[in-house]
Design goal:
Length: 527
């Protein structure tokens, strides 16, 4: 079966290539000169060579992919869908029946790239063909984001009878500097709907993010259905900062989000924050509470007052259920246990707790991730430490063999205000203007932490001051676009002045996506 599909694919491809090369009644198109190397690509690719002609994307173009059940066909479909909705141009995928084919985009699996990184890709753009080579479907998916960014907003309507969107020709060789390129959204302080979360994920995918961390629980709300402990959402899901109605995801909705992200080769990392940041859980089930105080629903923004009772067996039975139910609907290898700011937990209790919870996470087949405080406990080298504020704990974790996710609050927190006039956000760590957000290096930020210990970069967005997409986007954009480049592109290829120009090139996409980005005066948005 598989063999015959492969054979059929090969024959169709040979036919197409033959057709393109003999070009019977193909019209010669006099493409204008273009320069691939000045394209507004973010993240900036590793290597680019311009050949100064153009590929005319038009109604005579077809997409052709490998069809070996390796995910490449889905990548082709994704590209065709985006082209259809953006340009109103219908491009068939692996179907040439109704088209007089003059140009082809071929998305091809290969093991011969220079880089063996799973997300590496190579683009050969010629006048009548685009060849996208990738090791994996994830690599092909990153490659089509580059292609999407190369498609101009305006078509050229004079070169042929049908409109053409001119893509500059040349060659791109690309691979990510870090394997983990994440963004976090706090859906606990304020709830965000499935549609709002999907919009954010869709934009992140355009900039080659591959991880979306959901901070699902906190003092102010519990946002994921746990069937064996229903009050978590019946009670704990009904509150949020400021007294609003809150909300939660059913397991079906969470699975839908996971699938939506997976279609974009983004994994969702669920976080259940504990033993602190647990007022909503303990208010729902007071037996979990360990701070000895009478519980009330909490809709303020203070931290550090709540804790689970880390010496009570019921707490671990509860967590066994919670982790089991979430792990069962979460294909990511990672499960985030939070572990930050547990100021109401005695240190010895905190350490006992983290060590026990790590075992539960492992029992359910996941790798534990926790904020940098977890380095105080004795944890296995396979767990991951997320650095936000304590370099000494990041170093300690690295010495223990743990990989580090870099999220320094002073540089990478999307909820930090741009400046004192920012409409939303906080500034307890820093003001982070758009240039400061870009001008630092995750590889050298913590002295003594080597690149080998760094899994990647994540930009967290805490939601004390934001409650909808409009406010989310004001804080996230354009800074999240810069973090995408910090995670993908090596430091020696990054330059603020060059980046600034490419950022202006994102305005058409941001307007098309109706992104409420912050128009910093550091960037000259008018071209
Ligand atoms: C954190 O900002 N409390 C991780």
């Amino acid at each position: 079966m598989r063999k015959s599909i492969v054979l059929k694919s090969a024959m169709l491809l040979v036919g197409l290539v033959f057709f393109l090369s003999c070009g019977t009644d193909k019209k010669k198109i006099d493409y204008p000169k273009t320069d691939l190397t000045t394209s507004a690509l973010i993240p900036k690719p590793l290597k680019m060579i311009a050949t100064n002609s153009a590929f005319g994307l038009d109604s005579k173009t077809v997409i052709y992919t490998d069809q070996n059940n390796n995910g490449f066909q889905e990548v082709g479909d994704f590209l065709a869908n985006k082209i259809k909705t953006r340009l109103n141009l219908e491009i068939p995928v692996n179907n040439t029946a109704d088209v007089s084919v003059e140009r082809i985009i071929y998305i091809h699996q290969t093991d011969t790239l220079e880089s063996d990184a799973p997300e590496a890709y190579q683009l050969y753009i010629k006048s009548d063909s685009i060849l996208l080579n990738a090791n994996t479907a994830a690599g092909a998916f990153r490659g089509i984001q580059t292609l999407r960014q190369l498609i101009p907003e305006q078509s050229n309507d004079t070169l042929s009878e049908q409109p053409m969107w001119l893509i500059p020709t040349g060659k791109i060789d690309d691979a990510p500097n870090f394997e983990y390129r994440g963004a976090m959204l706090d859906v606990a302080r304020h709830f965000f709907t499935v549609e709002e979360v999907k919009k954010y994920i869709d934009i992140l995918a355009y900039y080659k993010y591959n991880a979306f961390h959901m901070h699902l629980t906190d003092d102010q709300g519990w946002r994921i259905e746990i069937k064996s402990w229903p009050k978590l959402t019946e009670i704990g899901g009904q509150t949020e900062v400021g007294g609003g109605a809150g909300g939660f995801y059913t397991q079906e909705e969470f699975k839908d989000l996971v699938a939506y992200a997976a279609q974009r080769h983004i994994q969702i990392i669920p976080e259940v924050d504990m033993p602190g940041h647990t007022n909503a859980a303990s208010f729902s089930y007071p037996i979990l509470n360990g701070n000895g105080k009478t519980l009330e629903a909490y809709t303020g923004t203070h931290v550090g007052f709540s804790t689970f009772d880390s010496r009570k067996d019921t707490v671990y039975s509860f967590l066994d259920d919670v982790i089991r139910e979430i792990a069962a609907i979460s294909p990511s290898p990672y499960f985030h246990i939070g572990g930050d700011e547990s100021h109401a937990t005695k240190k010895s209790d905190y350490i006992h707790f983290v060590e026990k919870v790590e075992k539960l996470v492992q029992k359910h087949g996941k790798i534990m991730v926790g904020w940098n405080e977890i380095a105080q406990a004795k944890i296995s080298p396979s767990s991951v430490n997320q650095f936000w504020n304590e370099p000494h704990n990041a170093i300690k974790a690295a010495e223990n063999g743990n990989k580090i996710i870099m999220s320094p609050a002073k540089k990478a927190y999307l909820d930090m205000q741009y400046d004192s006039l920012s409409k939303h956000g906080l500034h307890w760590a820093a003001y982070i203007p758009v240039d400061d957000a870009y001008n630092w290096d995750p590889e050298s930020y913590v002295e003594g932490l080597s690149k080998a210990s760094i899994l990647g970069l994540e930009a967290p967005l805490w939601s004390e001051t934001i409650s909808n997409s409009f406010e989310l986007e004001y804080l996230a954009f354009p800074r999240a676009i810069g973090y995408a480049e910090l995670a993908w592109t090596p430091a020696e290829l990054r330059d603020w002045n060059d980046y600034k120009k490419r950022l202006v090139g994102q305005v058409a996409y941001m307007n098309y996506m109706d992104i409420n980005f912050y128009r910093t005066t550091l960037v000259n948005w008018e071209k």
